[in-house]
Amino acid sequence: MSSFAALVAGLTNPIETLASFDAQVLLDAGCSPARVRELVKVHTAYYGKTKFTRKQANAIKVARSTRKSMDQLAYIEGRISSIEDPAEKWDLRLTLLSVKGDYKTLTRRAKDIVPEVDKPAPEPTVRYGRSNKKRRPVTIMALEEDAAAIEFATRQNLTDGPAGPQMYEKLMRILGLRPDAEDETPSGIAPAVPRPLVLIPLDEHIKIMGGDGDDVILGLTDGTTMTGAEFLAQNFGDVLEVAMFHPQEGPVNLYDTQRFANQKQRDLARATMPTCPVPDCRHAADNCEVHHIKAWSKGGLTNMDNLAMLCRYHNRTNDDDPSKPHHGRLENIRGAPMWRSPRGYLIPNTVHPFGAMTLLYGR
């Protein structure tokens, strides 16, 4: 048997090889994580723990006899995923496994075998996608009457040419993000204005000695000390808003030399990592929540080395207990927040490579 024939044989009757399934082996081989998650569900159904052991054993026999392919097994699990009753789910799985024929035959017969689930109406919501060449998708699920009102307003007085770009410009004027033809001053929603900070690396001969209270004491190699505010006043004048970062400890403190900023820790955390640190998450730090890397409930302090900005979802799914890995968790790695996977791998978020520690120290 050729190597290709062996591959096809494994795909067309895989129920035996699934017994030794290992998701990490597939991930290490470069397989799609989404596909691996599908196969994990298949493996769990046929070889995972269940109180329906007799039906599980019977399902393996039926899958073998009808030569169900890997894609067919994955389709069956997806088709019955909405069934809540475990016994009913096993009965439907066995019925679908008994269907003889190719993938198209199975999908056609499944429409008659698996009852349609009456899904509730989707909740009105707004979602924001990832930027691509200065463009960012915005998806709105609106109430029917609201959508009708928006469509009516944006379709008025359309000229020749594509309607979509014209409706977009009309919507931006309605929101106040574009000046109206008669009034050149935008009104309504104010454009998002980023807050610039000057990032200052501390020289290696200055080290962090303490961080309690409103100021940080810096120790110099000449045996003297000075506060962070005094260091900035001496070196950078009295007008700049400056954020200082140590090459090992990360953010030190934030000073406005005219007056201290009320939310300096939040501002420093945003400067350290301008997006949620979880890999591929595109949520901007301005829209994130303050997260204690060591949970407050477990004695974590509200110090800069224990703070990071996490999006609403990842702040709630973070593994606060390192001994119980499930979704992954955030850690402080040499002054910058980084996500550690449930299997222990440190993985950076490279969506926005302009965090302070990256710009100042190349990491």
From TrEMBL:
<protein>
    <submittedName>
        <fullName>HNH endonuclease</fullName>
    </submittedName>
</protein>
<dbReference type="InterPro" id="IPR003615">
    <property type="entry name" value="HNH_nuc"/>
</dbReference>
<keyword id="KW-0540">Nuclease</keyword>
<keyword id="KW-0255">Endonuclease</keyword>
<dbReference type="GO" id="GO:0003676">
    <property type="term" value="F:nucleic acid binding"/>
</dbReference>
<dbReference type="InterPro" id="IPR002711">
    <property type="entry name" value="HNH"/>
</dbReference>
<dbReference type="GO" id="GO:0008270">
    <property type="term" value="F:zinc ion binding"/>
</dbReference>
<feature type="domain" description="HNH nuclease">
    <location>
        <begin position="258"/>
        <end position="316"/>
    </location>
</feature>
<dbReference type="GO" id="GO:0004519">
    <property type="term" value="F:endonuclease activity"/>
</dbReference>
<keyword id="KW-0378">Hydrolase</keyword>
<dbReference type="Pfam" id="PF01844">
    <property type="entry name" value="HNH"/>
</dbReference>
